[in-house]
Write a structure and sequence with these properties.
Helix content: 25-40%
Shape: globular
Keywords: Hydrolase
Number of strands: 9
Protein name: Alpha/beta hydrolase
Strand content: 15-25%
Order of helices and strands: HEHEHEHEHEEHHEHEHEHH
Oligomer: single chain
Strand order of the largest sheet: 2-1-3-4-8-9
Number of helices: 11
Structural class: alpha/beta
Organism: Rhizobium mulingense
Radius of gyration: 21 Å
Mean pLDDT: 93
Distance between the termini: 44 Å
């Protein structure tokens, strides 16, 4: 009887330990796009961390697709375990390249983001459908001493163009701290995209003035999106105005 009791106790202890032990959650790597910075993910990061996900909000250099993808690739390569790679806007082109060659990248999430095919640039896709007004909202280009130019959104036009559903005070801070992108990065052609091999999810808003909703829908369908969330009236920074919806989709992609 004593031996039976001991065996039962051991079995219960082992079962309890197995029930408690959970596989580690994947690391979520967030890649911002042009005219934004890593802080644009703050609302999403807060939710993901609360739900137990390790998170890295990478500082996208915004210099060229090859340069930026190499940097994000290095970040991904430094992470042990599975990764969910998330890109906003131009960051979508970056993750489409950076994921290549990394077996630990399990899924891609495009947040109001470009998902170019081979030979396409973000400029090509932005002009593929009517409705985008970014070109008329840009400030005078900043000439770079090494050649080329940096592009910014005119701060007076930033709220309406980029973040119309964000409070004006917050949009003003975003406008002042925006990260410029080189013109060259926006016309760089993509190589073979990772979304042809990896499952992808898409979320965007109908009020996006940087990338027309029709273009975003076209890219989501072409990529075979597992689920596409369209947020009525949301601006280009849907992750700022609707972090709950974006985080929910990322967590779905992480399962």
């Amino acid at each position: 009887m004593f031996k039976f009791a001991v065996a039962v106790a051991l079995a219960c202890a082992l079962f309890s330990g197995a029930a408690v032990a959970q596989p580690a959650k994947p690391t979520v790597v967030l890649v911002h796009g042009a005219f934004a910075d890593s802080s644009s993910w703050n609302g999403v990061v807060e939710i993901l961390r609360k739900d137990g996900f390790p998170v890295v909000a990478a500082a996208n250099p915004l210099r060229s697709v090859a340069n930026d993808a190499a940097y994000v690739s290095d970040v991904v390569g430094s992470i042990a375990g599975p990764v969910v790679l998330v890109g906003h806007s131009y960051g979508g082109q970056v993750i489409s390249t950076a994921a290549n060659g990394h077996d630990n990248v399990k899924s891609l999430v495009y947040v109001a983001a470009f998902a170019p095919d081979a030979g396409e640039s973000v400029a090509d896709l932005a002009g593929k459908f009517p409705g985008g007004t970014l070109s008329g909202a840009l400030a005078a280009p900043v000439k770079l001493s090494g050649g080329g130019v940096d592009l910014y959104i005119d701060q007076a036009k930033f709220h309406d163009q980029f973040a119309s559903d964000v409070p004006s005070e917050q949009a003003a801070l975003m406008a002042a701290g925006q990260r410029p992108v080189t013109e060259a990065a926006l016309i760089d052609k993509s190589g073979a995209p990772a979304w042809k091999k990896l499952p992808s999810w898409f979320v965007y808003g109908t009020g996006d003035k940087n990338i027309p909703a029709a273009a975003l829908g076209f890219m989501a369908e072409r990529a075979g999106s597992k689920r596409t969330v369209v947020v009525d009236g949301a601006s280009h920074v849907v992750m700022v105005s609707h972090p709950d919806k974006v985080a929910e989709l990322i967590e779905e992609a992480a399962k």
